[in-house]
């Protein structure tokens, strides 16, 4: 069926806007017309489409309004409905032009009919043609030798027009737009800019097409409906519109590899690597901002549940607590129990209720106790956190130190997991492996359980290639060395491990680390360490066992010995000893859990230990 498309506007004072809006809405809904009608105190602007009788009914209503009896109308015919819905809106302006408010002056820019402009152009009169449309509209077509102001949007028009040379302002200038409405509104403003003889094309390009067809015009005309563009016969063309940026697209544009329907086109396409880097920078800034707030350093009430492991079943409570958390000595745990910081769930239906406990209470495997510490404060952390990589499956961090990976010991809020949970909320990232609080370098997190189930087993099976950089005390005589000293699986009272007495000891775990000297400097050396197994504290313990403990290691000493728990607690409580160990998780290579392809990552050390 033939659909009549009309564009009509008129500047004339209009009141009773709400009443007119309801009348137009009811009529258009009844007739099932589609398009837009804008009502303002300065006039009416409308684009509607439908059967001729229905369109004429709406025009008849408009012409009953005083001052709009002769509203000019431009029409064209299509075999489809170019609009998706019907909107009737009350607006401040019927056409926003971005110019300062200027009192209307009907004679500021007289209208010239299309036939008159064609006559002037046929006569090669000395006139300037000024295209007032946006650049994407001009790109489809314009008059021969017209001035293109290269506007991204019409808010740029005042500055662009004011910057035109004085010689143009002194000659006759004919400005034009799609339908004439924009030029009519900016006429008084143009006069104020010093244009001595400024005209506007009556009815704009569309009216010129009606009366003069292609003469003196190259290309097509952009229109603001589903037709996108019309040719001089006012028939729709094969021009499309980008869903993302609304730029008009030729068939060649649509054939571009940068065109993805509904997503991008050659005019708004962004290189995925650039877009990804921008997102990474924004996320990294947020992560560092959260870390810098050091929320754990503000006094708060710390609450954590303590579960009794099987190895502590049958022990008095105070003995179990000392075994589970050797960082606190017996006296400290005794004070916690006596002050009711340690409680047990009450035998009631209210799970939140707890009761005091005694130090002699015999504990069972799986039994839970609640530790509540009022006015708890945590040590400060290093907030420098680098976001190395981010995609839909994983997040890779270059961790600073001191910064624990997850809540434990003295840290509950000042942890990398807590910081990332806030930065990625409502996502909860899962660490695919572990790294010490005082160790810097690469940590990989997964974004969903499905990815965790594919990546974590790689770390557990030691199929991930890892490489660390460490500064050690001393200068090895060797350049390369393999250490296969077995490591005991049983924790020491200070939380560390020790070299097993023999490979056949019940708790002995086979362990292998490859070492290579990178450089020697004074009485220290930089060593690359490649662990072939994944034992707790493996690199630290093997280097100490070889007589080259890591610089800044608060636990392990030359020969493989470790500090007693009391000395370690004192060391950690001293602010001067909160500098990081000079151990850095440098490189990782693993199979990406989404793509299935190997992925290699590297992070430069935060500090130079020289």
SSE topology sketch:
Elements: E1 3-11, H1 17-31, E2 34-40, E3 43-50, H2 52-62, E4 73-78, E5 86-90, E6 111-112, H3 114-122, E7 128-131, H4 135-138, E8 141-143, E9 147-148, H5 157-162, H6 166-170, E10 173-176, H7 181-192, E11 198-201, H8 204-212, E12 217-219, E13 221-222, E14 229-230, E15 240-241, E16 248-249, H9 251-254, H10 272-292, E17 300-307, H11 317-324, H12 330-338, E18 342-345, E19 354-356, E20 368-376, E21 386-390, E22 394-399, H13 416-424, E23 430-431, E24 440-446, H14 449-460, E25 465-473, E26 480-483, E27 487-488, E28 508-509, E29 513-521, E30 524-531, H15 538-545, H16 565-573, E31 583-591, E32 598-602
Parallel strand pairs: 2-5, 6-11, 7-9, 7-10, 10-11, 24-31
Antiparallel strand pairs: 1-3, 1-4, 2-3, 8-12, 13-14, 15-16, 17-20, 18-19, 18-20, 21-22, 22-24, 23-24, 25-30, 25-31, 26-29, 27-28, 29-30, 31-32
């Amino acid at each position: 069926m033939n659909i009549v498309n009309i564009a009509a506007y008129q500047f004339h004072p209009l009141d009773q806007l709400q009443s007119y809006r309801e009348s137009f809405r009811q009529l258009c809904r009844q007739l099932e017309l589609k398009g837009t009608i804008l009502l303002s105190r300065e006039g009416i602007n409308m684009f509607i489409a439908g059967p001729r009788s229905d369109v004429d009914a709406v025009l008849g209503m408009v012409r009953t309004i005083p001052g709009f009896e002769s509203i000019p109308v431009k029409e064209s015919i299509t075999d489809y409905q170019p609009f998706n819905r019907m909107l009737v809106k009350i607006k401040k302006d019927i056409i926003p032009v971005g110019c300062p408010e200027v009192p209307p002056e009907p004679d500021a820019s007289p209208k010239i009919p299309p036939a008159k402009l064609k006559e002037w152009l046929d006569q090669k009169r000395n006139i300037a043609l000024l295209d007032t449309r946006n650049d994407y509209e001009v790109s489809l077509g314009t008059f021969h030798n017209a001035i293109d102001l290269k506007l991204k949007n019409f808010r740029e028009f005042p500055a662009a027009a004011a910057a035109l040379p004085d010689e143009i302002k002194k000659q006759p200038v004919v400005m034009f737009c799609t339908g004439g409405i924009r030029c009519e509104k900016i006429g008084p403003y143009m006069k104020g800019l010093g244009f001595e003889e400024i005209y506007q094309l009556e009815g704009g390009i569309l009216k010129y097409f009606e009366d003069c067809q292609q003469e003196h015009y190259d290309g097509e005309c952009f229109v603001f409906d589903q037709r996108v563009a019309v040719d001089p016969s006012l028939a729709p063309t094969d021009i499309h519109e980008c869903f993302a940026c609304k730029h008009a697209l030729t068939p060649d544009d649509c054939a571009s590899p940068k065109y993805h329907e509904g997503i991008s086109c050659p005019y708004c396409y962004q290189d995925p690597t650039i877009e990804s880097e921008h997102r990474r920078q924004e996320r990294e800034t947020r992560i560092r901002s959260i870390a810098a707030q050091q929320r754990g350093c503000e006094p708060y009430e710390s609450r954590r549940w303590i579960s009794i492991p099987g190895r502590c079943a049958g022990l008095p409570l105070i003995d179990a607590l000392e075994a589970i958390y050797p960082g606190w000595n017996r006296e400290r745990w005794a004070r916690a129990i006596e002050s009711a910081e340690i409680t047990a769930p009450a035998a009631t239906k209210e799970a939140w209720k707890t009761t005091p406990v005694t130090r002699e209470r015999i504990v069972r495997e799986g039994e839970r106790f609640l530790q509540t510490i009022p006015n708890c404060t945590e040590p400060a952390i290093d907030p420098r956190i680098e976001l190395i990589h981010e995609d839909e499956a994983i997040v890779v961090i270059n961790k600073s130190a001191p910064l624990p990976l997850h809540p434990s010991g003295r840290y509950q809020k000042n942890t990398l997991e807590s910081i990332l949970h806030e930065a990625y909320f409502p996502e909860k990232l899962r660490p695919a492996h572990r790294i010490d609080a005082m160790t810097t370098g690469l940590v990989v997190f997964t974004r969903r359980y499905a990815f965790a189930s594919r990546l974590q087993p790689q770390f557990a099976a030691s199929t991930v290639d890892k490489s660390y950089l460490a500064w050690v005390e001393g200068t090895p005589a060797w350049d390369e060395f393999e250490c296969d000293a077995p490591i005991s699986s049983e924790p020491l009272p200070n939380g560390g491990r020790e070299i097993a007495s023999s490979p056949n000891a019940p708790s002995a775990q086979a362990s292998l680390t490859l070492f290579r000297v990178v450089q020697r400097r004074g009485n220290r050396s930089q060593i690359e360490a490649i662990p072939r197994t994944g034992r707790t504290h493996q690199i630290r313990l093997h280097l100490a066992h070889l007589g080259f403990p890591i610089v800044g290691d608060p636990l392990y000493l030359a020969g493989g010995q470790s500090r007693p728990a009391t000395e370690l607690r004192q060391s950690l409580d001293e602010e001067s000893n909160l500098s990081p160990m000079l151990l850095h998780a440098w490189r990782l290579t693993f199979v990406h859990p989404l793509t299935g392809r190997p992925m290699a990552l590297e992070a430069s050390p935060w500090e130079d230990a020289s």
